[in-house]
């Protein structure tokens, strides 16, 4: 990627954050509760990424997601460690593709513990696919004006004669 001198790149210290050093099976075991626990921070980050279209402007929101993830797993470690380890080990060792279907009993025990001690209910199937409105405190970015080039080719006038395509339309399946 080519970068000019007027592009600001963040310093390494701005990007440095404690990583979530967990295995795939561990992240999968806690994924549903984690998604529910950190929903607001994650939605804020994703909204920032979609609106700004520049990941450099969303560094703080990304750090908030990572901090929320660390906080969640610390709480799980403090209150439901044994149940979580059983579930995570089952996910890791019961299939080659980390399938959750073989671990429903240990999942139920973990879900019950998280609900009783952390008051986080496992979201219903399809919860994360539902459309929701996220209320953000961050102001909406201004839309960039469309670029106007002085040497652009002029467009056809509105009253120009527009003949049909010489060999027909490429959209032959559409009816007029």
Plain-language structure description:
One of its GO terms (cellular component) is mitochondrial inner membrane. Residues 140-162 are annotated as: Disordered. One of its GO terms (biological process) is mitochondrial electron transport, NADH to ubiquinone. Keywords: Disulfide bond, Electron transport, Membrane, Mitochondrion, Mitochondrion inner membrane, Repeat, Respiratory chain, Transport. It is found in: Mitochondrion inner membrane. The protein is mainly alpha-helical. It has a domain at 18-129. Helix content is 46%, strand content 0%. The longest helix is centred in the middle third of the chain and has 21 residues, at 59-79. It has six helices and no strands. Helix 5 runs antiparallel to helix 6. The mean pLDDT is 90. The chain starts with 11 loop residues before the first helix and ends in a 58-residue tail after the last helix.
SSE layout and pairings?
Elements: H1 12-15, H2 24-37, H3 39-52, H4 59-79, H5 81-93, H6 104-118
Can you summarize this structure?
This protein has about 180 residues and is mainly α.
**Rounded Rg:** 25 Å
Q: Gap between N and C termini, in Å?
A: 45 Å
Strand content: under 5%
Indicate the structural class: mainly alpha
What's the count of strands?
0
- Let me know the average pLDDT: 90
Level of helix content?
A: 40-55%
Low-confidence stretches: none
Q: How many strands, which pairing sense, and closed or not: the largest β-sheet? A: none
SSE order, one letter for each helix or strand = HHHHHH
Discrete helix count:
6
Question: How would you sum up the global shape?
Answer: elongated
Keywords: Disulfide bond, Electron transport, Membrane, Mitochondrion, Mitochondrion inner membrane, Repeat, Respiratory chain, Transport
Family: Belongs to the complex I NDUFA8 subunit family.
Protein name: NADH dehydrogenase [ubiquinone] 1 alpha subcomplex subunit 8
GO biological process, one term: mitochondrial electron transport, NADH to ubiquinone
